[in-house]
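thought: fold this chain, then report.
action: predict
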Amino acid sequence: MAVAPSSAPAIPAAPTAFDALAIARRVLTLEAAALQDMAVGLGPEFARAVDRIAINRGRVICAGIGKSGHVARKIASTFASIGAPSFFLHPAEAAHGDLGMVGGEDILLCLSKSGETPELAPLLSYARRFAVLVIAITAGMDSSLAKTADIVLLLPDSPEACAETQAPTTSSTLMTALGDCLAVALIERRGFRARDFRNLHPGGRLGTLLMQVQDVMHGGSEIPALPASARLAEGLDAISRGHLGCVLIVHPDGKLAGIVTDGDVRRAFAAGRRAETIGDLMNPAPVMIPPDMQAGAALKLLSERGISQVIVAEHDRPVGLVHLHDLLRAGVA
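observation:
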């Protein structure tokens, strides 16, 4: 019986001189050189772009076709995550009704290596007609896009990593990096902090890493607290009922006097120490942290100090208590 030929395509043999590692190193070296050229070439136009985006009352609308479009989507996403309202607008969809998404207070950020992408023409014409600010990212110094734009962020005309096909490689890397430059400059200009970022990015591993102590701490009536004069039995009961392994000792004015942990109690009893009040067992110099400390830093502190809980305080007044288990339950590790 004849065997039917396989329909699977044959895998071509690799050229005898093929060296994947050498190719990767060549690509990285070429793109790194292009990035260095762009760093040296950045000038006042970049600062103008950052200033205009920072004071912008509308949105940053990012547009591009092909690989430039994918980079534009990424830039829009990054801007939105740092509190600069932004979205991606596909130029072809814009020409079929979506131009209504562009308002007079918006900024149009257009990406095109050549600057001659025909699909951008309707967007640019609309921008001219309604005085919408246009920022261009392009390597085409004398291109239609550059001539239309109010601000031009010029990319170095570096060779693509694949010289034979001219597939967008180096150019898309440069565009992505320039978008990151704009975003980081905006973060620092606006004083955007980790907590601000977490408010816009609460999910996933990044959201957990940016969590602050005040997001997981026990506060208010959950904090077991007693005066130093409280009887020892009352203190032990507070430690047991609080389920946090400690009781805080506070002065009459509400300021912190110290802490007694279940470990302190065990060590005192093992040493045969006599105590009538809970204050007799307290540690008068406990570790304290601010409520805006990142949860990851708090976990590291607990690990380094070999303790299970830490007091959250403001101006020497306890406002919360964080236990190791709280941090682990929240996914901080």
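thought: worth noting. The first strand starts at residue 60 and ends at 63.
final: tokens above.
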